[in-house]
Amino acid sequence: MRLFQVDAFAGSVFAGNPAAVCVLGGPAEARWMQSVAGEMNLSETAFVEPRAAGYGLRWFTPMAEMSLCGHATLASAHVLYETGLAEPAELVRFDSLSGPLTARREGGLLVLDFPARPARPAPAPPGLLAALGVDSAEWTGQAMEDLMVVVGREQEVTGLRPDTVALAGYNTRGVIVTAPAARPGADFVSRFFAPGVGIAEDPVTGSAHCTLAPYWAERLGRPELTGYQASARGGTVGVRLEGDRVLLAGRAVTVFSGELSDAALSRPGAGQRPTA
User: Are residues 233 and 130 in the same domain?
Assistant: First the structure.
């Protein structure tokens, strides 16, 4: 069973957000997939299952299954196109916990069609700003799974040194911190912390941009924007708000591929061997 590691939202290796992609031959049990994700120890491992009308897609951190993940979806589409399982002009359809998702090639980019996840205004939970190391916030809100904090300057975002132990105590997937961009070529910057699900800081978070896109599109008055996630690895995400959907655009690069051993495949719940 082939396993790929792909740097997503990156134009070259060792940048963006690394994701593992495992192409299954049939259904596999969640417990086995969680074990593989724990072994890979990346922020996300995606499992792609061929189906009659496309592919089933599930995402696991080293600790838990996620309902939506942008960079591992981008990585999955990249693997399908690169291996020839998807034709170059084909629209790839995924069935996921967040409903139907699609991916397509557009020039040198991969474009994902995701649900928008706008944040509603909400007070910051007690202690959150202190845990982030933020003196004050321009705006705070709550999205489906995440908290969001808007600060005034890019330097405040890049200079964050949060208390990840304290952040893990909040009942949320993670915390988005964002500000207007000072750097050329970007409209806003962000960082994403999710220690509660085993990710101290995610390098580039596609699903967080499903929350960032509605906020910045309204604030800046235009639907098409460029975000830069200012982690140590860094990555650029193009976004376009279209009603209740967000188009996410980026590049991806394969770092390596290999095979799961017979010992891993013989574990209960591994499912069928892959078709390719």
Answer: yes
Q: Is residue 275 part of a domain?
A: no
Are 6 and 78 in contact by the 8 Å Cβ rule? The answer is yes
Residue at 271 is within a domain:
no
- Return the minimum-mean-pLDDT range out of 40-44, 83-87, 161-165, 270-274: 270-274
Count of domains for the chain: 2
Q: How far is CA 228 from CA 13, 128, 237, in A?
A: 17, 23, 6
Residues 15 and 94 both lie in one domain: yes
What is the pTM for the complete model shown? 0.93
Nearest to 145 by CA among 227, 59, 225: 59
Q: Yes or no: say if 103 and 110 are a contact pair by the CB < 8 Å rule.
A: yes
Q: What is the mean pLDDT of residues 203-215?
A: 97
Q: Indicate whether 186 and 229 sit together in one domain.
A: yes
What positions carry a catalytic annotation?
44
